[in-house]
């Protein structure tokens, strides 16, 4: 799945600046291509001069007023821990640059060593520098068990040119995307998929609702969800992160950037960004967990390339639903739990963003499904709020722009189980 920039032909009320798309995975997910274009950013001002000073200056006081515990590394130190950036310890490569595995001494206890992932910025000029500053600004002030931890950074200018590096906690179990693909020797179990769904929802809930300011992730996808040693899922890659709308405003207007198959239709069409854009992407991700398929896969037959279009016919008949379940699960899943998870996905994929649930509500739904699926006998339904909304599909590209249309199911087992009346198609 590649990152693309979407152009909607509009320039809203944003200052002119450089916008970047990054790939922050510390593993094999870094082989994605990405496209960059202009737009606004968390660090859109004052990043053209002193690299360290630019970390202290941001157009958002909420960030600069918060303390950061990030370590500042010397380039010589990072050369040592990565064997002079040897390919033998390289664990990923992408548009941002290369990522290397290393071992550093703990700041709290120098006798203890910790594994880290060192991401080195490629030679991409100021766009890459702004992307680097964005990551430091965001991950330097937020902390949550379901967000990848940024340990520190390095900013030096030497005879070799501009050096920009980020040092993260090492995530040994790679990305969720990897484990959903045929590359993984052992597929994720159903129980693990529900855990990943919960962990990812907790991370988004924290960003959206649990701080004094709101952060919109804007590039939520399976390749940006990494797994630690205990298989806890953590959100990564904050190169596209944006502060949510200011008090009194309903949205943030930005240049349209993101990943094909994940971007919310209203954002693609208008450039108006809200936290509900992340909710849409999360709904797409739930169908990834259910089916084991990518949102957009050009290697499949034409009728199966777009995930949301492919699953729709199977949602109208309970007898057909099992056909969309990931065959690598080999039937080892509670069918009712899978059906309910699909309904949560449908709630996230309602065309009207105001009708989508908040991530805290989505999290509660997923928790209820998980708890019910572990009980014996017939599990309780999560809640009436899970009534089927308008499921959504992608339409054909027009003028090189992706426009996502939304249509609701007229009938079928979803409607019979979860809502007393049929929903009208749009």
Automatic annotation (TrEMBL):
Gene3D superfamilies: Phosphorylase Kinase, domain 1 (3.30.200.20), Transferase(Phosphotransferase) domain 1 (1.10.510.10). Residues 85-381 form the Protein kinase domain. GO terms for molecular function: ATP binding; protein serine/threonine kinase activity. Keywords: ATP-binding, Cell membrane, Kinase, Membrane, Nucleotide-binding, Phosphoprotein, Plant defense, Transferase. It catalyses: L-seryl-[protein] + ATP = O-phospho-L-seryl-[protein] + ADP + H(+); L-threonyl-[protein] + ATP = O-phospho-L-threonyl-[protein] + ADP + H(+). It is found in: Cell membrane. CDD domains: STKc_IRAK. Its EC number is 2.7.11.1. It is a peripheral membrane protein. ATP binds at residue 119. This is non-specific serine/threonine protein kinase. It comes from Quercus lobata (Valley oak). The gene is LOC115953153.
């Amino acid at each position: 799945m590649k990152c693309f920039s979407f152009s909607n032909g509009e320039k809203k009320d944003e200052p002119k600046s450089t916008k970047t798309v990054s790939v922050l995975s510390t593993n094999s997910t870094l082989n994605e291509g990405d496209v960059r274009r202009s737009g606004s950013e968390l660090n859109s001002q004052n990043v053209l001069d002193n690299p360290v000073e630019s970390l202290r200056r941001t157009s958002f006081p909420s960030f600069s007023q918060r303390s950061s515990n990030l370590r500042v590394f010397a380039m010589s130190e990072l050369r040592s821990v990565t064997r002079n950036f040897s390919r033998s310890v390289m664990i990923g490569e992408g548009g941002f640059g290369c990522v290397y595995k290393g071992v550093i001494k703990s700041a709290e206890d120098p006798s203890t060593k910790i594994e880290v992932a060192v991401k080195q910025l490629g030679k991409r000029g100021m766009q890459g520098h702004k992307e680097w500053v964005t990551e430091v600004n965001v991950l330097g002030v937020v902390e949550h068990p379901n967000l990848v931890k940024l340990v520190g950074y390095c900013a030096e200018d030497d005879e070799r040119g501009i050096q920009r590096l980020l040092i993260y906690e090492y995530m040994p179990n790679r990305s969720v995307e990897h484990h959903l693909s045929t590359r993984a020797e052992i597929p994720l179990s159903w129980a693990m998929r529900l855990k990943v769904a919960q962990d990812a929802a907790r991370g988004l809930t924290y960003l959206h609702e649990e701080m004094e300011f709101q952060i919109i992730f804007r590039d939520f996808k399976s390749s940006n969800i990494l797994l630690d040693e205990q298989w806890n899922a953590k959100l990564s890659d904050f190169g596209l992160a944006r502060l949510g709308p200011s008090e009194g405003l309903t949205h943030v207007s930005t240049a349209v950037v993101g990943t094909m198959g994940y971007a919310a239709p209203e954002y693609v069409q208008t450039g108006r960004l809200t936290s509900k854009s992340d909710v849409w992407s999360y709904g797409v991700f739930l169908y990834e967990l259910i089916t084991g398929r990518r949102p957009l896969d050009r290697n499949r037959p034409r009728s199966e390339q777009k995930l949301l279009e492919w699953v729709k016919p199977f949602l109208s008949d309970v007898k057909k639903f099992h056909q969309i379940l990931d065959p690598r699960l080999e039937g080892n899943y509670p069918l009712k739990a899978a059906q309910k998870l699909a309904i949560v996905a449908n709630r996230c994929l309602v065309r009207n963003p105001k009708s989508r649930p908040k991530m805290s509500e989505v999290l509660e739904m997923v928790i209820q499904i998980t708890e019910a699926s572990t009980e014996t006998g017939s599990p309780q339904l999560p809640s009436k709020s899970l009534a089927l909304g308008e499921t959504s599909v992608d339409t054909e590209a027009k003028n090189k722009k992706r426009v996502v249309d939304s249509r609701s199911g007229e009938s079928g087992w979803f409607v019979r189980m979860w809502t007393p009346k049929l929903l009208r198609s749009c």
